[in-house]
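Now for my pick.
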Amino acid sequence: MEVFAEYLARIDNPQHKSRMEEVLGWIIKTFPNLMPRIAWNQPMFTDHGTFIIGFSISKYHMAVAPERAGINHFTGEILQAGYNHSKELVRIPWDSPVDFLLLEKMIRFNILDKAECSTFWRK
């Protein structure tokens, strides 16, 4: 979590900060082989130099970015969880619980799908 300390310290809203700490800490514990980092002023995780998942905060939701392939693969489950999404991110409202099973599936999907990827983003 040290990598994210400065980012987390800048979050003014206690609810948003707590949620972000919970999610980032869960990923670190669940996926210890992923590399935590800050890029584009956002917390994210990489595997062998390729992007796996990233996060950002807005007034109404936490945005989860598993890349378009992750969104496309899990659209049905995203909607079932009660979240909406765009082409590139899932919006988890602050007043909704985090579906950690779905988050785990998205991360595992990206790890496997990008196992041979040699670029940061999918082409």
The beta strands are 35-39, 42-47, 50-57, 61-65, 84-85, 90-93. The mean pLDDT is 96. The domain at 2-113 is CATH 3.90.1150.200 (Aspartate Aminotransferase, domain 1). The helical segments are 5-9, 14-30, 67-80, 100-113.
